[in-house]
């Protein structure tokens, strides 16, 4: 398989969000002339509001409203000056009140995103290193990545994994001034906590460790003066912790606050903190509302408000425990997350709840992995017990209905979130369809398989038997694959769907940029399996092309498709795969909506290249049919080099030639980190040499005819398809002999001589292939991962 093109994150998010918007659960508009906090109007219907982040309901407090209105009347809608020059009259009072709350120096920022952009580049020195929890808020990650331009290393650990964190500490303790660990106090999707006590213990053990913690979702509803979850654990802020809180969300106003007890660091951030210097300051209304809220936070009243919220949270938890709903994390925060697994189940569930009169948030990629879609429920003081009880009853009723509508089960949801569940696996069956699922092509009828898949590449029946012989029984684990063959027929034995899948060890950075792979390969010199995972893939790393037969016109085509998705999930569990890759699809595939609904994200692959020969008699006729520009390319860049080499086509090489072929292939593999895969087993070349359908196009210089400088490894598919599967080249002589261009030309010439109707030139180097008349077509893969960690880790390593 050729390398999947660098994944465009924004394009993927756009596709996922567009899908959710079309399903009516994202980018909605609230209606109505008033808003109380208890209900929200969506599509002209009043819904009980379980999606707010204003957990204490202070945004509706009359004192905050009156303060904001009064400030506008006295000072206007804004104070259009940089705060570096002069703050408007209310700012000083707000800073004094918030300082009293935190009992430590603070900085007020326009919002937390701009605050992070100002604070992180100011706090982190070029001699430091950053370690990110992979679930830390996007705004923190985005600000941290700006430091790549200053060559500050950025590492990432799995969520709350302190063993990984300590490994990173040991890695950098002798080479870096400070090691910054960045995390959330309360995580916004699942409502789970950072392990503050354990982190502080690490801080005592490693004095160079510094903490940057975003606690905006822990603010107000917990802690002394409502200063949040982290301070409730710490008591007072130590010098090695930078803490972000918020003046919006639960605080009820706008803005954010950075608390920093290190006086020198506080001065440095406040003096010049990028956006803190150049961005507009908070509007008078926001500052006035924040002052009113701060006064509440500094009074005993805040503890009464916290207690009222606590009673509602406890009530919700009590009745939720009486159900079998998949609550992802059990904690004390006002944030709850119920898993639905597939996005389309989440869409269905949210829409059902809105029809019942309840609004909840959809949790979806990139906030969570696509297959970890769910509903995010927040409890606030606005919520009354009767609607809390009504929400739980509605969820308990509609959750199984949503599963049924989207052809999934509780067990599949629980598995997606790694939760324990006693329910047995749903059988791999479907009314009116027959499933044949096997682990060797030898048990599949040859004529049937070839009638469905035989006119594609190297995966006709004989080609797959060759692959099984080559990729099984090897000593190295990366050279052994599990094969699975899927045949779905109707009750009259008419095939509806057929494909094959392989499961094997892939390098996680196969999808990454070359510079990332170079860095990771340095680690693999001591740990060859560093950052590798088992992947279940439609097709294999050895094949390319359309790996799927699907009769979309059959009356049971959609049922077969859904059964296939269940098979893939079953195989993922059985084979313990960490990622599923389905490929090679066209952009307009009718499977797109179903694939996204099942938790797959689309990534563009290199274009595929083919040549249709039809009735062309010889290479001269073929070249004559090229465009004038391409004929000129042939005359100038290929023909002058043909006389410099000797060509040999061999179906059975001697030992010396076979060794040269393997070495030439290895040169290409080593040079091509853009396709960073494991090497193929030595047995593969021996099997090729003995197989009746494989042959080698070898070229050697005239002066050294026994020393090959290039080879094309070609497969003669019985259905008149010639496949240039892999290439080997001597890179030292690449330009002198135009090796790659010659091999392409000779491949076309050989296919014509054999009377082939089509040449499959594979992927990559489409520019060179197009100059020889290849037809180029876009191809896409669909990826589904157990979590986002690897994708996010690779992203932090880029740049």
Describe the protein in words.
With 799 residues, the chain is an alpha+beta fold. Strands 15, 16, 17, 18, 19, 20, 21, 22, 23, 24, 25, 26 and 27 form a 13-stranded mixed beta sheet that branches. Residues 1-6 have low confidence and may be disordered. It starts with 8 loop residues before the first helix and ends with a helix. The chain folds into four domains: 32-55 and 302-383, Alpha-Beta Complex (Aspartate Aminotransferase, domain 1), CATH 3.90.1150; 62-297, Aspartate Aminotransferase, domain 2, CATH 3.40.640; 433-604 and 782-797, Aminopeptidase (3-Layer(aba) Sandwich); 609-780, Aminopeptidase (3-Layer(aba) Sandwich), CATH 3.40.630.30. It is built from 28 helices and 27 strands. It is globular and about 90 Å long. Helix 3 (91-102) packs parallel to helix 11 (284-297), helix 4 packs across helix 9 and helix 13 (343-355) crosses helix 14 (385-405).
């Amino acid at each position: 398989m050729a390398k999947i093109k660098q994944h465009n994150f924004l394009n993927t998010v756009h596709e996922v969000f567009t899908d959710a918007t079309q399903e009516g659960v994202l980018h909605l508009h609230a209606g109505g002339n008033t808003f109380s906090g208890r209900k929200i109007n969506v599509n002209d219907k009043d819904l009980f509001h379980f999606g707010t982040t204003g957990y204490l309901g202070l945004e509706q407090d009359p004192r905050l409203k009156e303060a904001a209105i009064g400030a506008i009347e006295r000072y206007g809608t804004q104070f259009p000056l940089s705060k570096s020059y002069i703050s408007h009259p209310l700012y000083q009072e707000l800073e004094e009140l918030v300082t009293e709350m935190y009992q430590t120096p603070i900085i007020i920022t326009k919002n937390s995103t701009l605050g992070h952009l100002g604070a992180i580049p100011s706090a982190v020195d070029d001699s430091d290193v950053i370690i990110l929890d992979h679930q830390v808020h996007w705004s923190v990650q985005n600000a941290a990545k700006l430091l790549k331009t200053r060559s500050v290393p950025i590492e990432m650990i799995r969520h709350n994994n302190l063993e990984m964190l300590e490994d990173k500490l040991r890695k950098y303790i002798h080479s870096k001034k400070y090691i910054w660990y960045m995390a959330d106090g309360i995580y916004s999707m699942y409502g789970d906590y950072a392990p503050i006590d354990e982190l502080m213990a690490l801080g005592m053990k490693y004095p160079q460790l510094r903490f940057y913690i975003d606690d905006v979702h822990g603010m107000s509803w917990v802690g002394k003066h409502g200063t949040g979850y982290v301070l409730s654990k710490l008591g007072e802020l130590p010098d090695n912790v930078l803490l972000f809180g918020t003046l919006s969300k639960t605080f009820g106003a706008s803005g954010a606050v950075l608390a920093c007890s290190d006086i020198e660091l506080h001065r440095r951030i406040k003096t010049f903190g990028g956006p803190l210097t150049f961005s507009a300051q908070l509007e008078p209304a926001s500052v006035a509302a924040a002052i009113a809220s701060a006064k509440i936070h500094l009074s005993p009243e805040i503890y009464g408000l916290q207690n009222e919220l606590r009673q509602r949270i406890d009530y919700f938890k009590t009745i939720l425990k009486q159900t079998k709903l998949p609550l992802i994390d059990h904690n004390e925060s006002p944030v709850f997350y119920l898993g639905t697994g597939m996005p389309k189940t989440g869409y269905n569930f949210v829409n059902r709840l809105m029809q019942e009169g309840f609004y909840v948030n959809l949790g979806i990629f990139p906030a969570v992995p696509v297959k970890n879609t769910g509903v995010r429920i927040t409890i606030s003081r606005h919520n009354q017990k009767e609607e809390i009880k009504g929400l739980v009853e509605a969820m308990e009723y509609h959750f199984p209905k949503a599963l049924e509508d989207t052809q999934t089960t509780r067990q599949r949801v629980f598995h997606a979130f790694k939760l324990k569940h006693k329910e047995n696996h749903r059988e791999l069956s479907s009314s009116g369809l027959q499933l044949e699922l096997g682990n060797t092509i030898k048990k599949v009828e040859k004529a049937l398989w070839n009638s469905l898949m035989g006119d594609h590449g190297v995966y006709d029946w004989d080609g797959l038997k060759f692959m099984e012989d080559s990729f099984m029984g090897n000593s190295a684990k990366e050279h052994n694959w599990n094969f699975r063959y899927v045949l779905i027929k109707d009750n009259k034995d008419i095939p509806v769907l057929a494909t094959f899948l392989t499961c094997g060890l892939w390098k996680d950075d196969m999808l990454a940029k070359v510079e990332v792979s170079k860095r990771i390969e340095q680690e693999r010199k001591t740990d060859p399996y560093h950052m590798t995972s088992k992947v279940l893939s439609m097709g294999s790393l050895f094949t390319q092309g359309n790996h799927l037969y699907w009769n979309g016109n059959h009356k049971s085509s959609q049922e077969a498709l859904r059964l296939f998705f269940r098979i893939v999930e079953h195989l993922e569990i059985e084979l313990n795969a960490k990622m599923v890759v389905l490929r090679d699809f066209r952009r307009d595939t009718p499977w797109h909506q179903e694939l996204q609904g099942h938790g797959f994200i689309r990534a563009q692959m290199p274009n595929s290249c083919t040549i249709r020969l039809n009735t062309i008699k010889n290479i001269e006729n073929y070249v004559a049919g090229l465009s004038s520009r391409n004929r000129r390319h042939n005359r100038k860049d290929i023909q002058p080099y043909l006389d410099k080499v000797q060509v040999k086509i061999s179906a059975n090489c001697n030992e010396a030639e076979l060794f040269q072929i393997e070495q030439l292939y290895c040169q290409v593999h080593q040079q091509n980190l853009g396709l960073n895969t494991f090497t193929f087993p030595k047995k593969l070349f021996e099997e090729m040499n003995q197989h009746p359908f494989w042959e080698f196009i070898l070229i050697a210089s005239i002066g050294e005819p026994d020393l090959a400088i290039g080879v094309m490894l070609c497969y003669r598919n019985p259905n008149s398809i010639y496949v240039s599967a892999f290439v080997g080249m001597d890179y030292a002589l690449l330009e002198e002999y135009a090796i790659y261009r010659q091999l392409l030309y000779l491949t076309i010439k050989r296919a014509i001589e054999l009377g082939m109707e089509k040449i499959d030139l594979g992927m990559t180097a489409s520019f060179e292939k197009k100059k020889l008349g290849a037809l180029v077509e876009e191809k896409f893969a669909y990826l589904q991962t157990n979590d986002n960690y690897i994708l996010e880790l690779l992203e932090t390593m880029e740049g």
